[in-house]
Specification:
mainly alpha; 6 helices; Serine Threonine Protein Phosphatase 5, Tetratricopeptide repeat
């Protein structure tokens, strides 16, 4: 059983587990299935806006696929959530990626 199948098996038992959905989305990205990854990241962040790690990956995915407006929206929302949570590391990563994209 490969990694993706293992994650899917775990998700059958815990379908709303943010960590597992995030891991599955990253596996989809590795396989070039950005559309499936995007859906998972958006599900996570809609359900749990405080799951900060997914903002960076979703925004980067959108940036890579040319959806600049969507990337900007998710970077900005991620920075807002990271600031609320006091997560300076995530805030710095999001801000750096955002500024790199903008300039």
């Amino acid at each position: 059983m490969d990694r993706m199948e293992q994650i899917k098996e775990f998700l059958r038992a815990s379908p709303s587990d943010n960590f597992l959905q995030h891991a599955l989305a990253l596996e989809y990205i590795k396989r070039g299935e950005e559309d499936k990854a995007q859906v998972l990241f958006e599900e996570i962040l809609t359900r749990d806006p405080g799951y900060i790690g997914s903002y960076y990956h979703l925004a980067k995915l959108l940036e890579r696929t040319g959806e600049t407006e969507g990337a900007i929206k998710w970077y900005e929302k991620g920075m807002e959530e990271a600031q609320k949570a006091g997560d300076k590391h995530a805030l710095g990563e999001l801000k750096s990626a955002y500024e790199e994209m903008m300039f």
